[in-house]
């Protein structure tokens, strides 16, 4: 939450003390739940929200990383229908809505953080629409990686060398970017050959983040304040 709104020590202590850790989520676990309104935060792991068509085709609509709100139903008080799939083992944390409201009265920055997180999520989904509608495959993947690096850096999960974990298969990437797995593979290899990214297992390094941003039109201002990617060096 502090990534969206500066929180003082008492506010941070209050929110940490209020979170109740839930059971672990298994790798690959998919759920569809009609949840009561409560504040739900991803404590560990990665979760992908998705929509499923009747013929089994799936579109990933958002990626939730540690520290993110899992949904925003608590702001409206309405039950939330979620379809999500975990890409690595994870865990949710929850806070009863009434308790969060009380804490927000005592620490107004908590509600501002929630509202700014909701606004940021709206912008992220707008960028996804742009990618699916008008960006090329290289532009889609470049923008997606730049966005993830910036989001993870905001919560201390991306290194100063622009390296971060990407626990998503090429099939996951295909469903997030509206491409076939073959097209994703070709696009990844093209970015590697051009010296823009490096891959090692589930680790990704943005070697030339400025070039990736220029290629995809990535402007991190919609994500809020956060550390910029470290400029890379030109490929020898």
Question: What is the element string, with H for helices and E for strands?
Answer: HEEEEEEEHHHEHHEEH
Structural class: alpha+beta
* Sheet with most strands: 4 strands, antiparallel
Proportion in helices: 25-40%
Count of separate structural domains? 2
CATH domain topology of the largest domain: Jelly Rolls
Number of strands: 10
**Computed Rg:** 18 Å
- The CATH class of the largest domain is identified as Mainly Beta
Describe the 3D structure:
The chain has 236 residues and is α+β, with helices and mostly antiparallel strands. The protein has 2 domains: 9-117, Jelly Rolls, CATH 2.60.120; 136-223, Arc Repressor Mutant, subunit A, CATH 1.10.10.10. It contains 7 helices and 10 strands. It has helices at residues 9-18, 97-106, 109-134, 137-154, 170-177, 181-193, 209-216, and strands at 20-25, 30-35, 38-44, 47-52, 58-64, 80-86, 90-96, 163-165, 197-200, 203-206. It has a 4-stranded antiparallel sheet with strand order 2-6-4-5. It is globular and about 55 Å long. The relative contact order is 0.15.
